[in-house]
Structure formats: C-alpha cells, structure tokens
Write a structure and sequence with these properties.
With about 425 residues, the protein is mainly alpha-helical. It has one domain. It contains 18 helices and two strands. It has a two-stranded antiparallel sheet. Helix 1 packs antiparallel against helix 2, helix 1 crosses helix 5 and helix 15 packs antiparallel against helix 16. It starts with a helix and ends in a 23-residue tail after the last helix.
Length: about 425
C-alpha cells in the first residue's frame, strides 16, 4: 500500500467535502459543484491505486442504489432526457467511488478527514461572514424581510440545516468516542458551533429532526444502556431541566424568534408553510401516470423547473424520480441499516458510542428528509458522508474485521474488536 497515494486520496476527499460546502452564486455554482464531485471521484480513484482495496462482494445497499441509478438512466434515455441520463451516470460513479473508499484499510481515517473539512468550512464561515452569522444567530427581525436567516457560504438555509445538523452529530460522535479531554472539549465546541449554524439559518425541519433523533437516543440508552450510561443520562437531563426552568422565559423568547413562530408565512398559523399543499400535489403527480408510477422520470427529472413546483420531501421525490418500487427500496435500505446499526451498538452489553451515533446520523437524515429532498444527493458534504456511511455499515463484518487486523493501528486510534467493529465504524 503506497502511503503517498493514500495521502493524495485523503487530501482529495477533504477538498471535495470543503469545496462542496461553498454555494457561490451565478455561473460558478455548477462549476464548483462539479469540481467537488470530481474531487470525490479522484479520491476514489487514488484509493483504488493504493492497492489496499479488499475484494468484497457488493452489499445490499450498493445493489439497491446501483440498480436504481442504472434503471433511472435507462428511463431517462428512453424518454430522451440526456441531462437526467448524465446525472444518473454521475450518481453511479459517485456510488462506485464511495464503495472503493469504504473498503480501504484506513477507512477509519475518513471520519477524521470529514471533521477536518468541517472545521475548515466553519472557520471560513466565521472569517467571511462574521457579521451575518452573529446577526442571524441572535435572532434579528427586520421590518422589510422578517427574520434574517443565515446562508453560510451561500448555502440555502434548509440545506444548511442538513449539512451542519449532521456535522453536529459527527463531532458529537467524536466527543463520545475519544478518551482525551482536550479532544472531547474541542469536539463539543465544534458540535455546538454546527448547531448554532442550524439555529442561525432557522432550519426548523433539521432542528425537529435533531430533537427527535435525541429522543431516539435517550430511549435506547434508557432501555439498553449500562447503569453508568443511565446515571449519566439522568444527570444530564436534570441539568438541562434545571437550566430550562431557571431560564424558561429567555429560552422561550429566543425560540419564538429564531423559529419564526409568529411569522404570517412561517408561523404556527401559516399551514406548515404550504408544505401540505405541495405534498398533496406531489402525491397526485406520482399517481397521475400508471407507467411513471413504476418507472419514475429519471434522476433530477422532477425539479421545480420541470414539474412546476418544488417537492419538499425526499420520499415523494424518490417516487417521482425512481418510481414507487425503487423509491421504497432506497428508503428501506436506509431504515434497515439504521435499525441494525442501533441494535449492534448494544449487542456486546456495553454501548459502542461510534456505532450508536452512526445509526443516529441515519435516523437524522431520514427524519429531515420528510421536509426536504436531500436523502439521496451528492452535491453537499453531509450527503457524501451519508453515502459513505451507508456503504460502510452494510459491508461484510468478517471481511472488515480481517481488513482492520491487517492494518497497523494509528497511535491514537486502536482497532475495534471484531464483534464491535461491524461495518468498520471506528474511533479516530
């Protein structure tokens, strides 16, 4: 295995994540996005060139996603949609690159690469947009435009909720996994900064998804966690409750502003911002054509510029693009993977925080996707992470254990035991 080529692969991956976090306006937007995807493909290519890739049969998730993309390409080609055919091919290549990266001996270092890229993104936001960030995070309402929602590096507030909400979980995973105090404190700080980005963007769908993900985590720890974990959970809950009671008025006022609850267009009396109307239109479109009900229209062939309105739900969007059958299969791939991962995180009798939070990351994206269409995407940092994570969590446990055993451990990164290291979720 060539260390120099491995370093190039990791560098390309980090650049892909960093570049994918910039949403510049104008004609450069597509160029930057294609550049990020090109860097990700280059990372997969150089990873393959290291010579350390294990030959492992395709996992169920790869079969499902790969079949869905190829079928969507065929549908788009038959319908004469060249752009959708190209999108399908691009998604298929990204999936292949993710499969190669997930099969490397150094797969655990990918977590570290993503965290470093997120740190660089957050630092860039604070350097480039410090005033805008502070204005939004405190909850500023202007008479002419209403609540000022933050758009970090040009990113749409809803997408910001996915990217930085997922980032908060990525750093919280490291907070739970690392034994070093200074790393714990830094990871907690970065997790809080990511969460502040979500608040500044007033991304309510992501905040709701994070809250429900937290409820899932609490229930799992209360049900299957160790006595120590339950005591820690109880003390944390009591601390939060005390802070909530002591600062109830200030917290309620802040949440009312930052969540835009009194807004005539986004508030509690606005009818869920019209989403239920959009969802109804989307469902009616799914059932409007018996053929397209099963075949779909092709990848990225159900955008607002094509069908006339935005589909603010990944599940309706999957049905429109891939057909109901493949849409259900893709959704089940995520649901089953999350379910199995959360179960495995407690199977040794001791909670594995890396596996637990990995499962929660999938729970978060599944919940967030009810309100947004980012479940299967490649143009932003967290979607790339989710795709890699989905593959990693479905790989053959025995093969992954042998691959980990063949790799010299990093100084601060001991290999996981085979029973716990299922799917190679490691603790860099």
């Amino acid at each position: 295995m060539n260390p120099a080529i491995r370093f190039v692969s990791m560098s390309m991956l980090g650049l892909a994540v960093y570049v994918g976090g910039w949403y510049v306006g104008g004609s450069l937007f597509q160029l930057v996005q294609l550049g990020a995807i090109g860097l990700f493909l280059a990372a997969g290519f150089f990873a393959l060139m290291t010579g350390g890739t294990r030959r492992i049969e395709l996992c169920a998730a790869e079969y499902i996603l790969g079949s869905a993309f190829m079928f969507a390409m065929l549908v788009a080609f038959v319908r004469g949609n060249a752009l959708s055919t190209e999108f399908g091919a691009m998604f298929l290549l990204v999936l292949a690159a993710a499969g190669v990266l997930a099969r490397q001996h150094w797969v655990g270092r990918i977590d570290h690469v993503f965290r470093c890229a997120y740190i660089a993104l957050i630092a860039s936001v604070l350097v480039v947009q410090p005033t805008e960030y502070l204005t939004s995070v405190v909850g500023t309402v202007e008479r002419s435009i209403g609540l000022v929602r933050f758009t970090p590096l040009g990113m749409h507030p809803n997408l910001c909720g996915l990217v930085y909400g997922g980032g908060s979980l990525l750093f919280f995973q490291h907070f739970l996994s690392t034994p070093r105090l200074h790393q714990k404190l830094f990871a907690l700080l970065m997790s809080a900064l990511c969460l502040s980005m979500v608040l500044a963007a007033s991304s309510r769908a992501s905040l709701l998804a994070l809250a429900l993900t937290g409820v899932v985590a609490v229930c799992l720890i209360a049900w299957r966690g160790s006595r120590r974990a339950r005591i820690t959970l109880t003390l944390s809950a009591l601390t939060l409750l005390a802070v909530g009671v002591f600062q109830a008025t200030a917290i309620a006022d802040y949440l009312t502003v930052i969540l835009d609850l009194d807004s005539p267009t986004r508030g509690v009396n606005s009818g869920a911002t019209g989403r239920e109307v959009i969802w109804q239109e989307g469902v009616e479109l799914v059932f409007s054509d018996p053929v397209l009900f099963f075949t779909g229209r092709g990848v990225r062939a159900a955008g607002p510029e094509v069908i006339g309105f935005p589909v603010e739900s990944s599940y309706i969007n999957l049905a429109l693009e891939h057909g109901v059958v493949f849409g259900l299969l893709i959704t089940l791939a995520f649901v089953v993977t999350a379910w199995r991962t959360l179960g495995r995180s407690f199977e040794t009798g001791v909670m594995n925080p890396a596996l637990l939070v990995s499962g929660l990351m999938l729970v978060f994206v599944l919940l967030q996707s009810v309100f947004n269409r980012y479940l299967v995407a490649v143009g932003n940092p967290y979607s790339l992470w989710v795709l890699l994570l989905l593959v990693r969590l479905n790989l053959n446990p025995a093969r992954l254990a042998s691959a980990s055993a063949a790799t010299p451990p990093w100084r601060d990164h001991p290999p996981l035991r085979p029973a716990v290291g299922t799917n190679a979720v490691s603790q860099p």
